[in-house]
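Nephrocystin 3-like N-terminal domain-containing protein
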Amino acid sequence: MAMATAMAMGDDWGRRVFRLRNLPSTISSATEAASLLGAALGIPVDHVIICSLAKTSNKWEVPPSSVATLQLATVPAFVHKTVAGREEWSIPLAGRDRGRNDVLILDTHFRGMTVLHDPEPGRHEADCIAISGLASHPFGSWQPRGDDKTFMWIRDEIPRSAPGIRAIIYGYDSKLHNSTSFQSIGDLGQSLILRLKAGGWNLPSSKPIVFLAHSLGGLVLKEAIVQMADRDKSVTGILENVLGAIMFGVPSLGMDQSHLMAMVEGRPNELLVQDLSREGGTHYLRQLNRRFEGLSFLRTARILWAYETAESPTVEQRDDGTWATTGPPAILVSIASATCHYHRKDKSVTIPINESHSNMVKFSRGDPNLEIIMESVRDLCSRRNRHQARRGSEAAEESRSDPLGDAHQAGKKKDMEGEETIKELGKLIASIDDLHNSIYASELSDRLGQIEHPSENTFQWIFDLPLFTEWLQGEGGLFWIHGKPGSGKSTLMKFIYESRQTWDLLHTWGTDSLEIRASFFFHYRGSAIQKSFEGVLRSLVDQILGPHRDRLSSEYRPIWEQYRLLKFREAIEEEREERRKQEGKPEKEKDSAKEKRGNQATAARETLKDIKNSLRALIKSLPPSCSTSPTLRLLGEVAKCFQGEDGFVLKLERVMRLLLDQGVTRMDLVLFFDALDEYDGHLDLISRFLTGLTQGSETSATRVKVCFSSRPWEPLKAHFAGYPNFALQDYTRADIENYAAGSVASWGIDSPVVVSLVPKIISRANGVFLWVNLAMQVLHEAYLLNPEMATAAAMEEKLLRLPSGLSEFYKLIIQRIGRTNRRHTYALLELLIRNNGIPLTAIQIQHAVLVSGCADYAEAADVIGRAKAGSVKRDRLSASGVGVATTLSTKEMEARIHIARWGGGLVEIKRRDHVDYPQLMHQTVLEFTMGLDFKRIVVGNLASFASENGHSFHVKYLGQKLAGRGRPGLGMAEVVLEELDLGGGKTAEPRDSDAVSKLERELLQHLAYHAEQAELTTGRSQLDYLHTLPIGGDGFLVFLAVSCGLTLCLRDWVARKPRQMERLVARLQRREVALSNITARGLYAGGGVARQPKTDPARQKSMADQRDGVGAQQNSLVQQEHGGGAATVVPLASSIFFAPRSGIFHDRHFKILTLLLEKGYGLVEHEPEFFTRLCAEIWRNETNASERIPNATLHTVATWLLEKGQDPNARFTARSLTARRGEVRNPAETGMLGATALHLAPPDLAAELIRFGAHASALDPQGNTPLHWALFPQDLGSGARNPVAHWGCARRYEKCRVLVGAGCAIPFTKKLWDRGLAEFDREGFDTESLRSREVYARRALSDKERMKKGLNQLVRRLRRTQPGPQSQPI
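Predicted structure tokens:
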């Protein structure tokens, strides 16, 4: 009746199978388990049907609890009325003491290991672990369909047919619909390994294992085995215990999952399903299969492959949005995929099962297939005798190898373990050192040092503010200090961070935790890492690991260093001993010599013995903490977390999350962030990051407090208004008063007039320290200029005329600068705000300002020369009121004077490492200079005529500095090619170490950056100035313009010299210029001409060419081998198209290429690899998620080239497939070598190639036609080496149509042709047009014949195209 009631509820609760965990170890029978659960649920005991009861698989649980499977005739209301999707319930046990087994856990998900049967004591011979497949239940997937759920063959049949085998199932989350999991097969494999370790299957004492794996479960098992094969003994011990496995329908080479993609499209598990695909997934699956089959593990383990022989219904969506298996039937996993082709190689290891993919493991009672499987399981388990015999013989061999017995063997093993511990310690130290070196940067802490210390007796109130002190002594969370610009936020944050009172209040957390403080002060005017998310992560990780790293160095590094020294000495002494043995005894030797040699040998042996004793003593002296130290455990996890091929920031994020969630050692972190509004990124990202810092996992041993400051911007209010916070300007009136009074006192003026102004200054300041500072400077200057006229009324009037806002104040400061200096003021501020993160010294900035108004290089060089020659006397400098230190050089003091005069106080000097660096005084100054009316404020009516900005000024300074190097160096065009990542031609001869200095490389990189940005921000070409630089003439200009995307510069150059490009190209083609004396190595940086005797006619010719721009162009575009030889064309167009300086392709790069082609640049003749590189780029676009160069642009250029005479049968070479700098070549590209463009081209490009004469039946070096590639891509190889593995069926069908329509010969037999077209038939494509070609090969060529034919065709083609002596390629 109860069962009927349960069924009447409209659900199948009465048929469900439950798992019951955490049963006390005292429960030994099904009756006891039923009584315990029935009492806890309040239902009759006979309504609890226990189907199995066994001890848990957890090897480390003492005493072990039990686990049961059961069904309920009466389902409690709290179970069947639970919220949808709930699969687990906790059931408290009444009347029991609080302890580990006071709660029973009832679930239906069956995740993890579930033991279904315990063999009788003394009869346990092996374990059988079953792993379910995709979108299947760990228990239910092994049960037959229907209402009767009382039979499950792994639980019920294995104990009956193989009593000595313990039956276990392993469950994991494999659902598809509405899944939120993004785990990969690799993640699932790793989880399986950890479960096996927890079960103790890595121990020598464990029982052998036989696996049963269905579908995806087999891939998880294979992935786990591959991972385990490359691990240490603690994991490989699992493999030694594996006897074999039965793989049921495992898609080793992919499966038909197209019907599943609609279910998971856009969901996190979409990538997992894609990995199973016959098309997109074969790259991963075939690679996994190759690695699996290459393991030595298969020499001892036996794998059986079961495959389905019936079609399976596919999944389709109903009208109500639900999913059902009512779709058209299909073969989900082919025989070849399910058996890894063993159905052809060795049928003895295959098992056909005449069921669908899902039903092939759902055996019912008496199923004939079940008898076959059970016999196979028994056969695999019979191998345990050989397994145990092998392990026993190995143990006996180890015992016989030590004649001193077990005690000595144990001591030796302990020493070996100790030495391994030291070695692991050394690896950890090296890993942590590498981590520190990769993330540490001194500039990360520079901003903190640049902030001025607060005035005496200011900000002390912060520790009397209850809101703040309560937060300091509380449990954790965020605290926000916000305030107006210039209100002193950074100064306060520095005061809090460095104050001892902060740490006295924080110490109330408790003394058992490691207290760590860390900070990050954002600096928008600084370098990139001082304002970026990467900088935040690098700084925090390094600071948090600092105390742990210090302990590692103090406690464990000495042990490692001593061990290394002893091992080094041991190696030397052993080598000497070996040499003495090899030398032997002399035939005739005097007694004295013999005695001396004997003494030396004895001493050497004693020395070696002492070293070995010292090593043993060192090993024995290892502190016990080496195996239990939380520091070592945490650092080990960090080092492991930082490994991998992921991006640098992603690895830092992982490490940061590990430190927040770790449960190894108690840590209390106090983090301080200043100027959050100066973060160079989206504020939502950094806001979520700060919030996430305080939201660790429940098991985390890390507590976090975060205090940060910023302006009260609306996006920040939205995130942090609910946290403790205050406005700084509400509390600083007294501080401002102290600051103003202190400033007056520092003037040394005892004037009541000035002192009387302090209250009025405070009133006008509105809590902004910066305004007070500026106002005090103005009043101080006014008083010094005319003390007699500084009456109370006059000074108050001057104070009242001062602007109330900072922006207006900055305008006043600009107006106070003399008009003759305003242009220099504009240049100074523009140079600082346009800098690309590399700080310039004060002297460099001074010189850059001076050349900002120069029209050409000669004028700039003259200005710099006069600036370097001039000097200012010390007394003059000191009297100027700059307050410079006497340690400064005369030039540094002069630079300070100029910057102070031009900046008017808006620019400050920070001295770091004995060098002056100018920077804007405050973030608000940067915002002021970036305003739309800044130029008008500074230069007035000239603003409309001043077309230059900071980037233009940087170009002038860098250009004159580069051209003025004044020493022989490498040709500048070659430098541009190599250092600006232009790719292409090789240098003509090896480069000497002094060819291009590091400074020259940096100057070139910065010049290229600012030249590009100048065009983009001003809309004006930099040609007028660049053309005057004595660096390689017009050739250098062309290369710089092309490589850096200087569209306007190249346009203007071509407009001024319309015949120059044609003339240049003509000279290249006719090779009229003698280049033997113009080597890339012998160029002057100033003139681009080789060092020659004065009377040398070649030099005169070269100088004449230089004057009209030809010689320099020739040298820039052609690099001649030293001593005379064939020159190599530098790929001018390739540099801009495939490797732009910024790494990002823009429309302007396409415009430059168009301009080159329009002006006569022979792309087909001069860059023969361009077309195949273009085709390779098209292929890369199809294999990548995003297009680096738009496909439409690539196809347009390809058509242009074909119209200009490009050979459509061009073949791919190693050079045309060279990866871009910084990238790793895709292994698939090696499969393209020697193939024609038509082999690789997608259907639309293939049609164009054929239209321009491509051979539709061309052969690659392996003898494959383009039709081979399209129809049988699997024959090209598997995995990453298959260049068309990513193509879908539809794309290959279109390619076949294009090729057959062009008259491509069909090099297959009719049978093979029909087999190839069968896939198109299955997908519903019309193949009649393809079958109409009734011309077939009499027989299919073998691989060897096709390769020979392809090579012969290639050789004939090369002979036809080989140029004669008069037409050697340039």
